From TrEMBL, chain A:
SUPFAM superfamilies: Periplasmic binding protein-like II. Belongs to the bacterial solute-binding protein 1 family. InterPro entries: SBP. It comes from Pseudoduganella armeniaca. GO terms for molecular function: maltose binding. This is ABC transporter substrate-binding protein. Coiled coil: none annotated. Signal peptide: none annotated. GO terms for cellular component: ATP-binding cassette (ABC) transporter complex, substrate-binding subunit-containing.
TrEMBL record, chain B:
GO terms for cellular component: plasma membrane. GO terms for biological process: transmembrane transport. The keyword Cell wall biogenesis/degradation does not apply. The chain crosses the membrane at residues 74-95, 107-129, 149-174, 209-230, 257-277. This is Sugar ABC transporter permease. Pfam families: BPD_transp_1.
Length: 428, 289
């Protein structure tokens, strides 16, 4: 073999991976655990079995701040995965910080997707600075679960056995009081221990119900109403209608064990109730309603999962790889009925608006929640497990346990967060 | 002749020192200087950017969160440094005294020290659970110790003492075994016993060891991070968040590496100053040799 032939052969090697029969391996990082994780694994397996050209290898990582730190650092140095599941509330942080790579409309079209295929709210949340940075998968709002047996004994059900509508803070407080009085069990359960998020989500929902932003023009803008709202919530705990100091597993098992009238939580607990109900281990009948209108409107906090492509520094992915990645994303979108069974509201309209999805129980009971959702406000420090939420989770639970007054808790929250609001968005 | 001899010794000495020097330069001095440089910039977690001079330090001195974290670190040190040293001494005396049970005691006292931090914190967490923990069972309480403002830090301190006291015991034991037996025999002939032996022989001989233990313990306690990070996550509402935890949050949750580097640099200065201060006190009291 002479030198020229050798060089010629070497020049051909970059072409080899693009041969038609070569399998494209897509490495995905997901933050989905529990029931969500199992469902995503099933979708990955079905996709891998459905064709030969692309193989998705999924790695599940612990969700929260470590997941995002890992994604950010890995992507910046070019060692990130080809695909990641993220929360759309983190988009201003991740897309704005240069962690994600935009997805061109032509790339989406090549796998048969378009913006119009997705529910407008989720699609808008997938955009940053006029470009698409994620393909939305779902929406998961805060909802109100109730135990029909306990609520029935407290006289809170209508003649059809459903929860009689609750409107206004006083009405909900009264409902909690009646459960406690009639059954001796707490009216409400929600996670309330230090470093838990439920209180932040509820507080954010109730501020939105009063038309108040948390942050406006780089300042905290909730004012006295923020304190009053936190005080109303803390009041439930002080009056004994709810147990303070509960971490997430303790709070859900209190409800699943039939020991609380209501539970405030995201829709991701739906599969566990469906499963317990089917297996006959639940021991009570349950219902789910959107977060009631407690102030001026029925806003409820929500977040969405979405698929995003890490920018991977100076190692951007090939066009063939991008096509393989998006082929998987399109497959999951079209098969998101299985995802809906996880309690989530799918983002892909042909599935979300199908007769099957609209009839799905118990999802249909709270489907109206989708019309009133509020996401974390935009800001680089906002979003799931983001810097501001991390700070809020330290201070907002304290008044529930009576450790701090609402005013003191919010004062400390603002002091600690002051630096974040002043700082400009980091470029990663 | 003499210089030749010296040169002959220099080369092996350099060769023997080289690995340590290389490691020291590569893994300590260079990163330390880089950290200081980083503290003068407005850098994010992964990208170094704009030189801002001492701006981060100006922010630092006005940052209530930093001072609170530093206060928590001192509080933890206050709760641990002296008890760990004294307890280590008492344990070493017990091991040394009981010739038969000594090795068993030594093993029992030292055992917790071999546990990884994750195991130690898990055990402490189980024991202190509000409804199922053995501590509450024995006390007939339902207290959530790690969520209690007044008890969280003392509980972390107790867990740390149980975990690390074995090392101090070993140090004191080594010191004790170095005291010539003849001193005791001579004193015994003069009729000294018990407390007098300890006061006039054991303690003067052990004093340098005690000061060393105190200095090492002070540095170790100031560097606390893992225990509070796992057991209390710095809560309730940051009352157990220590300096290194604040630095970690600043760097990783808030992606503010420049400011985190300033916290780190300031903290190193505090640790060095306190160690020097302790050394000065030791010299004045005639403890250190």
């Amino acid at each position: 073999m002479n030198r020229r032939t050798l060089l010629g052969l070497l020049a051909l090697t970059p072409l080899l991976p693009t041969r038609a029969d070569e399998v494209q391996v897509v490495r995905m990082w997901t933050l989905l655990s529990g029931g969500d994780g199992a469902r995503m694994r099933a979708l990955v397996d079905e996709f891998n079995a459905s064709q030969q050209a692309v193989r998705v290898e999924s790695t599940t990582l612990k969700w929260g701040e470590p997941f995002y730190t890992k994604l950010i650092t890995a992507s910046v140095v070019g060692a990130g995965p080809d695909l990641a599941t993220i929360h759309l509330s983190r988009l201003p942080n991740l897309a704005g910080g240069g962690v994600l790579r935009p997805i061109a409309p032509a790339e989406l079209a090549a796998v048969g997707l378009a913006g119009a295929d997705f529910l407008p709210r989720q699609w808008t949340k997938s955009q940053y600075a006029g470009r698409t940075y994620a393909v939305p998968l779902d929406q998961h709002p805060l909802v109100l679960y109730y135990n029909k047996n306990l609520a029935g004994r407290a006289g809170l059900l209508d003649e059809r056995g459903q929860l009689a509508p609750i409107e206004g803070m006083a009405a909900l407080t009264e409902a909690l009081r009646r459960v406690k009085a009639a059954t001796g069990k707490p009216g409400l359960t929600m996670e309330s221990a230090q470093s838990t998020y439920a209180i932040w989500r509820l507080w954010l929902s109730l501020l939105a119900q009063q038309g108040l932003p948390v942050v406006a023009n780089g300042r905290f803008a909730y004012g006295a109403a923020g304190e009053a709202t936190l005080a109303r919530i803390a009041g439930w705990f002080q009056a004994g209608y709810a147990t303070p100091g509960m971490d997430y597993p303790a709070s859900t098992s209190q409800f699943m064990g039939g020991n609380a009238g209501f539970m405030l939580n995201g829709v991701w607990e739906v599969p566990e109730l469906v499963r317990g109900s089917k297996a006959g281990t639940l021991g009570f009948e349950y219902g789910i309603v959107p977060l009631p209108k407690l102030y001026g409107n029925a806003s409820a906090w929500a977040d969405s999962h979405g698929f995003a492509l890490p920018a991977n520094g100076d190692k951007p992915m090939s066009a063939a790889k991008a096509r393989a990645v998006l082929a998987f994303v399109a497959y999951v979108s079209r098969h998101s009925m299985g995802w809906a069974e996880g309690g989530h509201i799918p983002a892909y309209r042909p599935v979300a608006e199908s007769a099957a999805a609209l009839a799905l129980q118990p999802n249909a009971q709270y489907a109206a929640a989708a019309h009133n959702v509020v996401y974390d406000p935009d800001g680089w420090y906002m979003g799931a497990a983001g810097p501001l939420e991390a700070i809020a989770s330290k201070f907002l639970p304290a008044p529930l346990a009576g450790q701090l007054t609402p005013a003191d808790a919010l004062g400390r929250f603002e002091t600690e967060a002051a630096r974040l609001l002043k700082k400009r968005a980091p470029q990663y | 002749m003499r210089t030749l001899h010296r040169r002959r010794e220099t080369l092996p000495a350099m060769l023997l020192l080289a690995p340590f020097l290389a490691a020291f330069l590569l893994f300590f001095l260079v990163p330390a200087l880089q950290t200081f440089w980083l503290s003068l910039t407005d850098s994010s977690l992964t990208r170094t950017s704009a030189f801002v001079g001492l701006a981060n330090y100006v922010t630092l001195v006005q940052d209530p969160s930093f001072w609170a974290a530093l206060g928590n670190t001192f509080y933890f040190s206050l709760l641990t440094v002296l008890p760990l040293t004294v307890l280590g001494l008492v344990m070493a005396l017990l091991v040394d005294r009981f010739t038969r049970a000594g090795p068993w005691l030594q093993g029992a006292f030292f055992l917790p020290f071999v546990l990884p931090i994750s195991v130690m914190t898990l055990i402490a967490d189980w024991m202190l659970q509000p409804s199922s923990g053995v501590v509450n069972y024995l006390l007939g309480m339902q207290r959530a110790w790690f969520a209690d403002v007044h008890w969280a830090m003392p509980m972390v301190a107790i867990g740390t003492i149980w975990w690390t006291v074995g090392f101090n015991m070993l140090m004191f034991l080594a010191g004790l075994r170095n005291i010539p037996r003849e001193l005791y025999e001579a004193a015994a002939l003069d009729g000294a016993r018990g407390w007098a032996l300890f006061r006039h022989i054991t303690w003067p001989q052990l004093r340098p060891v005690a000061w060393t233990a105190l200095v090492l313990q002070l540095i170790a306690s100031l560097k606390i991070f893992g225990q509070t990070y796992i057991m209390t996550t710095g809560g309730p509402y940051n009352t157990t968040r220590v300096t290194l935890h604040y630095m970690y949050e600043t760097a990783f949750t808030q992606s503010d590496a420049g400011y985190a580097a300033a916290i780190a640099t300031a903290f190193v200065i505090v640790v060095v100053l306190l160690s020097l201060l302790q050394g000065a006190i030791a010299r004045r009291l005639g403890g250190a040799k």
